[in-house]
């Protein structure tokens, strides 16, 4: 059985590598130290093409591919469609790549095809969503955020700010990561004596989502906090709160970084952003796959990239971090 590196050692090595890559002298790119033939990795995620979060995951994956001599193919359905993702995974595996990286937003649909891939001898790394199912499908490890725990931490922050009745907005149906965030949030706020109403909207239709959030807030005037579980939900809820003249007075938190929500934190309109570090997710997932193929080494435990809270106290540092790494954050804008 191959030896496994500890998650802490992998994280230490990874951050050392990223630091060297981002701060090389005279702006130069470090020499690629990985000799030998290129290995092939296919990455199949559920991320929708219009969702800015996934461009950051993909950019991190592409950087790791460049750093570790990997021929990377990145695929995803054009809409949230577990059946289409399952078909992509099966088709990719039939071409016998050296390793695969996948997300598991819908275990009932995706677990079977992924288990077939790992059983065939192709190493699999699970990224972004699937921390509770990666072991059952035979994957090497999980890279991403513990989403239920992230929801718990969001509730603690909201409760500390005085929130007792909250609205949790899910912008993508069928995504277990997003439902886990609301579930953890709901349970923890209830434990603090509060309550949560969960609202599902379609993030691909921001104006309709904005209107639905406005209606929910009007129907329940006791709501004094809103949590959105991603960038598209934030855009819709921000527009709704603006229309109701509550942006900046309603307690408001969200997941996943964009330029707009970092500015909202800086301006005091947003309590926090929970950053799961999508660039690092993509980078570490491809690195873990490449290291297993080349050296027979992979992390013993999941690599948790979040939850990492961005608040007014550290937002300037986070903005500098993203600027220094050259990641173009989603500009965004509230629905009109």
TrEMBL record:
<feature type="domain" description="Periplasmic binding protein">
    <location>
        <begin position="42"/>
        <end position="290"/>
    </location>
</feature>
<dbReference type="GO" id="GO:0030246">
    <property type="term" value="F:carbohydrate binding"/>
</dbReference>
<comment type="similarity">
    <text>Belongs to the bacterial solute-binding protein 2 family.</text>
</comment>
<keyword id="KW-0732">Signal</keyword>
<dbReference type="GO" id="GO:0030313">
    <property type="term" value="C:cell envelope"/>
</dbReference>
<dbReference type="Pfam" id="PF13407">
    <property type="entry name" value="Peripla_BP_4"/>
</dbReference>
<feature type="signal peptide">
    <location>
        <begin position="1"/>
        <end position="20"/>
    </location>
</feature>
<dbReference type="InterPro" id="IPR025997">
    <property type="entry name" value="SBP_2_dom"/>
</dbReference>
<protein>
    <submittedName>
        <fullName>Sugar ABC transporter substrate-binding protein</fullName>
    </submittedName>
</protein>
<dbReference type="InterPro" id="IPR028082">
    <property type="entry name" value="Peripla_BP_I"/>
</dbReference>
């Amino acid at each position: 059985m191959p030896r496994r590196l500890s998650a802490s050692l992998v994280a230490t090595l990874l951050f050392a590598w990223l630091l060297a890559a981002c701060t090389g002298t005279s702006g130069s790119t470090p020499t690629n130290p990985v000799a030998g033939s290129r290995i092939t990795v296919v990455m199949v995620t559920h991320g929708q093409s219009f969702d800015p979060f996934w461009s950051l995951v993909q950019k991190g994956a592409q950087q790791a591919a460049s750093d570790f001599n990997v021929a990377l193919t990145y695929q995803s359905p054009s809409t949230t469609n577990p059946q289409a993702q399952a078909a992509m995974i099966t088709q990719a595996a039939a071409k016998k790549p050296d390793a695969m990286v996948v997300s598991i937003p819908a275990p009932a649909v995706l677990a079977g095809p992924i288990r077939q891939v790992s059983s065939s001898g192709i190493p699999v790394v699970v990224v972004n969503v699937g921390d509770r199912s990666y072991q059952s499908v035979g994957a090497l490890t999980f890279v991403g955020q513990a989403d239920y725990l992230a929801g718990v931490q969001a509730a603690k922050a909201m409760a500390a700010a005085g929130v007792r009745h909250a609205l949790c907005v899910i912008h993508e149906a069928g995504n277990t990561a997003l439902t886990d965030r609301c579930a953890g949030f709901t349970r923890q706020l209830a434990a603090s004596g509060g309550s949560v109403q969960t609202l599902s909207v379609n993030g691909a239709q921001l104006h309709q989502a904005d209107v639905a959030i406005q209606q929910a807030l009007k129907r329940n005037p006791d709501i004094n906090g809103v949590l959105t579980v991603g960038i598209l939900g934030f855009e819709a809820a921000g527009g709704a709160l603006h229309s109701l003249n509550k942006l900046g007075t309603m307690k408001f938190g969200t997941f996943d970084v964009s330029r707009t929500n970092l500015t909202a934190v800086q301006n005091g309109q947003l309590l926090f952003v929970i950053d799961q570090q999508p660039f690092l997710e993509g980078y570490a997932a491809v690195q873990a796959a490449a290291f297993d193929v080349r050296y027979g080494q992979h992390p013993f435990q999941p690599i948790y990239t979040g939850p990492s809270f961005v608040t007014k106290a550290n937002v300037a540092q986070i903005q500098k971090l993203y600027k220094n790494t050259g990641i173009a954050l989603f500009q965004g804008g509230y629905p009109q």
